[in-house]
Amino acid sequence: LIVASPAGAQIGQSTEITLVGGEVASADSLLFSDPRIKAELVKVTMLEPTGKDKDKDKTKNPGMGKAPPTSEVKFKVSVPAGVIPGPIDVRVVTPGGVSNPRTIVVSETP
Predict the structure, then answer these.
(1) Are 9 and 15 in contact (CB under 8 A)?
(2) Which of 26, 73, 101, 105 could in theory staple to 8 by disulfide, Cβ–Cβ 3.0 to 4.6 A?
(3) What is the mean pLDDT of residues 62-79?
(4) How confident is the model at residue 64 (pLDDT cuts 50, 70, 90)?
């Protein structure tokens, strides 16, 4: 998981959050450090390499193969009343496992 944007959500509201990374195209849910926060999948988009990365071999280590294609997933995230304001970890859940965390901040103000 590379990035979560926007990096925040308002308590008592729903916010659309975009997550970008390799192997997230098969995402079916999000896992939050506060289980009261819920998410619903909105859209999955495969991203094409651009610029200098377009023709570049993305092999990170010899024998490891190419890096997975990058994609973005959008989720509608609902933060209910009663969630304590502050940082919350979010992870993407796929059939292959759970991603590394990214932090979003929940607050009472937009």
Answers:
(1) yes
(2) 105
(3) 82
(4) low
Please list, in sequence order, all residues whose beta carbon lies within 8 angstroms of the beta carbon of residue 65, skipping any fewer than 6 positions away: 59
Distances (CA, A) of 101 to 7, 19, 49, 78: 12, 11, 24, 18
- 90, amino acid identity: V
Residue 11 has pLDDT above 70, yes or no: yes
Half-sphere exposure of 98 (CA within 13 A, CB side): 10
Summary mean pLDDT of the chain: 88
Tokens of 2: 């590379």
What does each C-alpha distance from 53 to 17, 23, 24, 39, 57 come to in angstroms?
A: 25, 18, 19, 32, 8
**Token pair 């008592």 in the structure block, residue:** 12
Print burial letters for 20-59: b (CB count within 10 Å at least 16), e (below 16). Answer: bbebbbebeebebeeeebebeeeeeeeeeeeeeeeeeeee
Rounded Cα gap, residues 103 and 98, in angstroms: 15
